[in-house]
Amino acid sequence: MIRLEEVRKSYQLARDSWSHALQTINLSIEKGEYISIMGPSGSGKSTFLALAGLIDRPSEGKVWFDDKDVTTLSDKQRAAIRSQKCGFVFQFPSLIPTLTALENVMMPKTIAGSYEPKDEVCALSLLEKVGLKEKAGHLPYQMSGGEQRRVAMARALMNEPEVLLADEPTGALDYENAMMIMNVFKQLHEEGKTILMVTHDRELAMKAKRMVCLEKGRLV
Amino acid sequence: MNRLIVIAWRNLKRKVSRTMLLAGSAGLTAFILFASYFFVHSMERSMEASSSRLGADLLVVPKGYGNQAGDLIISGTATPFYMPESVLDRIRSIPEVERAAAQIYLETVSTVCCRTEGDFPIIAFDPREDFTLRHWMADGKEMGTYDILIGSSAGGDNFLFHYDNQYVEEWVTLYGKDFSVKGVMFPTGMGTDHTIFMHRDAANELNEKKGSGLEFPAQHISIVLVKTDPGMESFVKREIEKLDIGVDVVQGKGLQEMVNTQIFPVKILSYMMIVLVLVMSSLQVATMFTALISERRKEIGMIRAMGATRGSTYLLLLLEAGMASLLGASLGALMSAAALYDNRILIMQVFQLPLLFPDWVSGLAIGLVTTGVTVLISVLAAFFPIRSTVRMEPYEAIREGE
After folding, report:
1. Contacts of A86 in chain B (CB under 8 A)
2. How far apart are CA B48 and CA B104, in angstroms?
3. Nearest CA in chain A to B298
4. Is a pLDDT exceeding 60 seen at residue B310?
5. Could B7 and A103 be called an inter-chain contact, meaning their C-beta atoms sit closer than 8 Å?
6. pLDDT (tens digit, 9 = 90+) per residue, B211-245?
7. pLDDT tops 70 at residue B139
8. Which residues in chain A touch residue B395, judged by CB atoms under 8 angstroms apart?
9. Which residue of A has its CA nearest to B13?
10. From the CB of residue A140, how many other CB atoms can be counted at a distance below 10 Å?
11. Which of A134, B198, B209, B389 has the lowest tally of Cβ within 10 angstroms?
């Protein structure tokens, strides 16, 4: 489903100074696969996820999505793929601070311009799935970090994505909240969704069906 | 789109301080803009009135007084020269004459007008036909037979104190008859500032009355002010001369041009100030938005990651800018209008400028234009800081926003 071919990603630090986040990555991810990406801090895990999820472009190489080279697609085309096929859960608090939990969950539909009143029912059922239906009207600051992460999870599922991309989804969460999120992943995997999860927690990584390790921007 | 408007509105509603900052900036801009344009408009309206006052295309005076005609209009001197009233009808019979109005120069009288003592030239005119003074009879104040108009130096400054108070009236005694002051003309810096204008019917009536002290040949007038069809001044001048009715015809264009030349720098300065306000406001909003967008870079990156195109991200953020500035600009314009209208007499007295304030409809139009321009400027100024973030890849925006 997703294929990275000779992918490199570099960032310019100064005039003649570059940081190579990823170096010659070749990796294929099959549809319905549950894969965890492991590695120490600064190994390029988040960059890898960003390239696979079409929220960044490689400096070199190609990224294939559903057998289509998406590297050179226009911004609009890439946004359409993200909107229809990808769901993101970030490692940081990623809710829009001025919107309630329910409004945040409905946001992908809103920005896709496909919002319909029935989506509210769908968003509520997703909040129920992550155990937060009763907090639908709460603003992010009125919820704990774990609850915010679970709302972000519900939001990522709003457009019924084929691929779920999660960057340290359980980072800084207590065990109970972390397990709740991992259970949702497991359930989604069983439903046939493709899951890419970045983590540096070996125990969590082991829950995936396949594990890849990155070190200094290379697959090891 | 509707849903985006709802989201934009919630973003504004739940970030009160941010919204206040944006709306406040727009409000201040609209306030200054409204006030500036209001002044320019008032001044232009006043200039138009002054111009009309001097703006007859042709001045028709008795034979031999042609050289003095322009000076008489400017100085407002009541020089007693007369010609038969029938001249007016003869001139009106020329098809290219758009309007023609007569005035009678009576005499200079020593009296007290609105607690101002002095020698005031008296000119009689007919408010029903005079086009040179009609602007000064605005605000629905109809002129009766025993009403007068006064120049700013003929007690006008004192009259302004109760300009809007219909229960307080100023009275002036002329030729043994009490006249009510119905309007004041603003300063033009010319002799006419001392003039008192009375109704022609009153002048004729007093002329017939024995012992009134007013005497001029019955059925006579001093000057005919003519407005011709556009571009027909010279033709009409020749036509009047051909009538052979014992008159001199003088073209009045020079007087108007003189006034326009004097006003031009003031107008340019006023417009320059408006442009400066607009530029200042644009820079202010752009600076503010640069800071706000920088603060929200991560949020923008996330929205883009969720599938928002650059276009819809622009739309959402510009809607926020537009709505906040619409709110602020409407309030700013409204407050400016309220402050100016409420204190218009004070403003006229303090500035000592020839200001004819716009009516409510023009005021509303100025308010709408001011609000529209402020919103447009805010949206344009917000566009550039937004662009710098929206052009980034979503992940880049998220990283930079962390």
Report:
1. 307
2. 23
3. A94
4. yes
5. yes
6. 777 888 888 898 898 988 888 888 999 999 888 88
7. no
8. 47, 50, 55-56
9. A98
10. 20
11. A134
- If DSSP codes are grouped into helix, strand and coil, which group holds residue A80? helix
ipTM of this complex prediction, to 2 decimal places: 0.90
Cβ-nearest to A108 among B10, B299, B307: B307
Q: What are the start-end ranges of the E strands in B127-285?
A: 147-151, 171-174, 177-185, 196-199, 220-221, 223-228, 247-251
- CA-CA distance, B97 to B290, in Å (whole number)? 61
User: Does residue A30 surpass a pLDDT of 60?
Assistant: yes
B171-194 pLDDT tens trace: 788 888 888 887 777 666 566 677
Q: Give the containing element (helix H, strand E) for A28.
A: strand A17-29
Cβ neighbours, 10 Å, residue B123? 25
Question: Cβ of A79 and B309 within 8 Å?
Answer: yes
Kindly write down the DSSP assignment for every residue of A156-176, as one continuous string. HHTT--SEEEEESTTTT--HH
Per-residue pLDDT averaged across B67-75, rounded?
65
CB atoms B306 and A98 under 8 Å: no
Average the pLDDT over A65-71 and give the result: 90
Rg of the Cα atoms in chain A: 17
Per-residue pLDDT, averaged over B70-77, amounts to 61
Q: Do A50 and B395 touch (CB under 8 A)?
A: yes
Name the maximum alpha-carbon separation found in chain B. 99
Q: Which residues from chain A sit within 8 angstroms of residue B307, using beta carbons?
A: 79-80, 82-84, 86, 108, 111-112, 159
Q: Where are the beta strands (DSSP E) in B56-158?
A: 58-62, 83-84, 97-113, 116-125, 147-151
List of chain B residues whose C-beta atoms are within 8 Å of the C-beta of residue A113: 1, 3, 312
- Identify the bridge partners of residue B157 per DSSP, sorted by sequence position: none
Chain B residues with CB under 8 Å of A76 CB are 309-311
Q: Do the Cβ atoms of A90 and B10 come within 8 Å?
A: no
Tokens of B269: 């300065």
| Stretch B314-325: mean pLDDT | 91
**pTM score above 0.80:** no
Closest CA to B183 of B160, B211, B216: B160
Cβ contact, residue pair B299, A103, below 8 Å: no
* CB contact (8 A) between residue B303 and residue A107: yes
